[in-house]
Structures are given as structure tokens and as C-alpha cells.
């Protein structure tokens, strides 16, 4: 009985993760045209990640594949700096000098 329940929980978590990947991002233009306005180099995600890429923290880490709350997130290959802006790695490095 416990195995059936655990399998059901894992299967539903996998479905949420797949849904998250397929429909999570809108361009900042799309987000800005509705009621969601994101900063430069950000996208609005209806299924946000719990893992935030930050300046100075470039080591890939395991991240749970579950949906977080809807919010603006940095686009791919951009990092959150101390001011809350999404910048390139080169910009991160320049800020730390």
C-alpha cells in the first residue's frame, strides 16, 4: 500500500515538472503587455524555479523539479546580482572587482 502511494506521489510530481517545463516562460514583452512586467533580462514564469542563479555562485547544483510561485526570473545565462538585476557573468565579475 505504501509503495502505491509513493509511486502516485512521484508520478504526479513528474507530471507537474513536465508541465512546468513546457509552459513556464513568457518573453518579457509578453509579460509586459499583460499585468506582469519584468525587468531587463527577465522572463515571467508561471512555474518558477526554487534555484536562483546568483553572481558568484556558478557551480551547478541539484534543483528540485517542482513549480514555485509565479514570478519574474533571470533569463538563461543571466545571474541575479546584489541589486536584484539580471546580468551576464562578465558583468557579475566586473561588479566584484
UniProtKB/TrEMBL annotation:
Keyword Disulfide bond carried by entry: yes
What this protein is called in its record is TIL domain-containing protein
The species this protein was found in: Pristionchus mayeri
Q: Which SUPFAM superfamilies match?
A: Serine protease inhibitors
**The keyword Ribonucleoprotein is annotated on this UniProt entry:** no
Q: Which CDD domains match?
A: TIL
What PANTHER family does the record point to? RIDDLE, SERINE PROTEASE INHIBITOR 1 PROTEIN
Q: Recorded GO terms, molecular function? A: serine-type endopeptidase inhibitor activity
Which ranges carry the TIL domain?
38-92
Amino acid at each position: 500500500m505504501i509503495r502505491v502511494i509513493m509511486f502516485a506521489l512521484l508520478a504526479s510530481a513528474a507530471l507537474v515538472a513536465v508541465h512546468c517545463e513546457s509552459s513556464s516562460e513568457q518573453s518579457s514583452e509578453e509579460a509586459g503587455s499583460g499585468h506582469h512586467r519584468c525587468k531587463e533580462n527577465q522572463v515571467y514564469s508561471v512555474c518558477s524555479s526554487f534555484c536562483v542563479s546568483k553572481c558568484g555562485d556558478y557551480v551547478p547544483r541539484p534543483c528540485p523539479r517542482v513549480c514555485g510561485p509565479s514570478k519574474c526570473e533571470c533569463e538563461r545565462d543571466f545571474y541575479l546580482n546584489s541589486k536584484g538585476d539580471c546580468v551576464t557573468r562578465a558583468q557579475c565579475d566586473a561588479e566584484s572587482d
